[in-house]
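Worked example 3 (structure in, sequence out).
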């Protein structure tokens, strides 16, 4: 299997971290191209992504092929020693496709068409779309298979369309037949006897389109599964085409970060390189840094713990928030180094040069509108120099495994978001984010994981909230704890089975036994302005009226309110159960205590506030997410690879400063 290592550690050459970004030079006169490449070289750019969204240029009318401009670009890139990550252009079909084949356009749940004029206007089940996408992919792959600039394939872009149209309906039925076998089984799985929804014929089964009132949760859940699988099928089709031409080159598709639309675990398994786009808001550098850490920990886990790729980030501002702030000086570099610390071997951006026209003309680039003398490019050069320095020591090395696993699963996320939920404030993604942040703030080594993964590698597993758990996951948790593992479990977990059917007793009996819960009588969600007094902390979002099993220790109880005197936090053997969401400092304290008990220590003790420490291979990355200079104690003698200076016991990090330390002999 081709891997990222093939590009970052080429035989006979020094290892390197890939550095570059989306390059869309077809918007510019050709004179600009050579100028771009000159500036890229100066900045240490290794790789560019070409051709994302270029379909209308490559195939200006059905069957026509206009490769000349791309030939010249590929040649030019190669002549400048820049590798090309070549995108299949299928995320933005040319207007002629929608015009001639309106069925290639997606329909929303109200039956409204998404027209061309933007991008991602394709119906993934459409035969016409697939046929044309396959043809242009095949032509592209055939033409450039032997081109020396080509280093990797980038399929489509941020697969994210949804389609409720007629072809989607047919494909949905086929998918449902595979999953359920018979219509009877489907009726049973969806519980269609409720509200008289029983299906008598497959043709009656539709995507969950606009309906009068709440839709069937099993139906909606299966449609989300189907949509993820359908898009994956599109990815696979193009991947298989390019693989036929270039079996030696890695293939990726760029994920949106921590996003509901695709089952990241299932998708990552189909890629040679796992890549992700990450755009935290620079207006809040601390929260942004956490977002980076979360996305990195998830992406690294999806990549099986090995190197992964930042396919896109912004050098400065994006242009899709209500107010778009640039990155203050130093933040771009810090966040690039943070990704590398957490396992990235490739740091790419959207995009090299900001467009002068089109919807994203105010989105930053690696070189800003102010040009080669502007701050953006200056920082781009600095980041490139840092990555070049780190490459030989870092590329291919691994962030140590073990540590704390935070469990996350898309099936459960989807099921929990149903419109008939007890609280629309409850979102697995937000809970994973809150718990991960607590661990990140505590400086503990952490990764994300799926309950089916090998949990035994982790002394502590935390499960913020998995509304839906299949039997295999429950057994895995039982085995994990029986085998000596420590588990912290959050509320409203193990409530549903894979058909989104409530487990007997409300919460699965095996899970209750594991956590020392006799029963949960009521779930009591809290409104945004409500909280519960648990003695030493306040809890928000959720509470439960629960009865403990004999022998379970109550660590905190509710004081006042409807659950006055009832248990809120439990300990039973090596498990803890949180029936509410403690405020951030309390959650951090609670998880830190559990980590301590499980023998997991912070990466570096005694860090000043805002400093993140990460180990990768035998290096220690120190990243300062604050603005005021801080002094960090690092016992021993080290050398900072970024500056070449020797560090004896302490070092000072300035605003958004970073150091990458190796032990000094
Ligand atoms: C996404 C897309 C890019 C660009 C950026 C802007 O990540 O993949 O094409 O639109 O957003 O932030």
């Amino acid at each position: 299997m081709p891997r990222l290592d093939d590009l970052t550690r080429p035989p006979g050459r020094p290892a390197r971290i890939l550095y570059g970004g989306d390059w869309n030079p077809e918007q510019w006169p050709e004179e600009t191209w050579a100028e771009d490449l000159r500036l890229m070289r100066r900045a240490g750019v290794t790789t560019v992504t070409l051709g994302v969204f270029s379909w209308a240029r490559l195939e200006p009318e059905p069957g026509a092929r206009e490769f000349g401009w791309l030939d010249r670009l590929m040649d030019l890139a190669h002549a400048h020693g820049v590798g090309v990550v070549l995108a299949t252009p299928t995320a933005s079909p040319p207007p002629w496709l929608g015009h001639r084949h309106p069925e290639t356009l997606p329909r929303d749940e109200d039956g409204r068409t998404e027209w061309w004029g933007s991008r991602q206007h394709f119906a993934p089940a459409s035969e016409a779309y697939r046929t044309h996408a396959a043809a242009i992919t095949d032509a592209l792959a055939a033409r450039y298979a032997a081109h020396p600039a080509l280093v990797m394939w980038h399929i489509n872009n941020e697969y994210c369309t949804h389609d409720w149209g007629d072809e989607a309906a047919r494909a949905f039925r086929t998918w449902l037949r595979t999953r359920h076998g018979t219509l009877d089984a489907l009726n049973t799985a969806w519980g269609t006897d409720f509200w008289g929804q029983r299906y008598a014929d497959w043709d009656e089964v539709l995507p969950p389109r606009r309906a009068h009132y709440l839709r069937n949760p099993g139906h909606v859940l299966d449609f989300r599964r189907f949509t993820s699988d359908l898009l994956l099928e599109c990815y696979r089709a193009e991947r298989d085409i390019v693989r036929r031409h270039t079996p030696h080159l890695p293939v990726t598709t760029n994920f949106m970060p921590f996003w509901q639309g695709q089952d990241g675990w299932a998708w990552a398994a189909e890629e040679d390189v796992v890549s992700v786009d990450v755009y935290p808001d620079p207006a809040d550098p601390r929260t942004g840094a956490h977002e980076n850490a979360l996305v990195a920990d998830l992406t690294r886990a999806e990549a099986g713990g090995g190197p992964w790729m930042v396919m896109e980030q912004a050098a400065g501002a994006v242009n899709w928030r209500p107010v778009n702030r640039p990155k203050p000086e130093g933040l771009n570099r810090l966040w690039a180094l943070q990704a590398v610390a957490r396992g990235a071997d490739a740091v790419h951006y959207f995009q090299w040069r900001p467009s002068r026209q089109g919807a994203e003309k105010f989105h930053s680039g690696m070189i800003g509108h102010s040009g080669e003398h502007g701050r953006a490019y200056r920082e781009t050069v600095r980041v490139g120099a840092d990555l070049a320095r780190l490459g030989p020591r870092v590329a291919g090395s691994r962030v140590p495994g073990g540590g704390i696993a935070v469990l996350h699963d898309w099936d459960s996320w989807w099921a929990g978001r149903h419109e008939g939920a007890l609280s629309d404030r409850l979102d697995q993604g937000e809970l994973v984010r809150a718990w991960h942040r607590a661990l990140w703030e505590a400086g503990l080594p952490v990764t994300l994981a799926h309950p089916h993964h090998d949990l035994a590698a982790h002394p502590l597993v935390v499960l913020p909230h998995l509304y839906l758990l299949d039997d295999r996951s429950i057994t895995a948790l039982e085995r994990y704890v029986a085998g000596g593992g420590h588990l912290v479990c959050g509320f409203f977990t193990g409530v549903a089975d894979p058909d989104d059917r409530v487990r007997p007793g409300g919460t699965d009996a095996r899970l209750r036994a594991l956590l020392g819960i006799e029963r949960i009588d009521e779930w009591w969600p809290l409104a945004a302005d409500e909280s519960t007094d648990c003695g030493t902390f306040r809890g928000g979002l959720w509470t439960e009226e629960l009865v403990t099993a004999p022998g379970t220790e109550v660590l905190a109880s509710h004081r006042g309110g409807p659950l006055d005197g009832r248990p809120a936090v439990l300990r039973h053997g090596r498990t803890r159960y949180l029936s509410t969401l403690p405020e951030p400092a309390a959650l951090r304290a609670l998880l830190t205590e559990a980590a301590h008990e499980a023998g997991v220590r912070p990466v570096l003790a005694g860090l000043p506030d805002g400093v993140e420490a990460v180990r990768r291979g035998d290096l220690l990355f120190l990243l300062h997410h604050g603005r005021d200079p801080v002094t960090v104690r690092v016992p021993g003698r080290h050398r900072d690879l970024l500056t070449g200076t020797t560090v004896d016991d302490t070092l000072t990090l300035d605003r958004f400063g970073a150091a990458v330390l190796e032990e000094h002999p």
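Notes: The mean pLDDT is 98. The chain has 18 helices and 26 strands.
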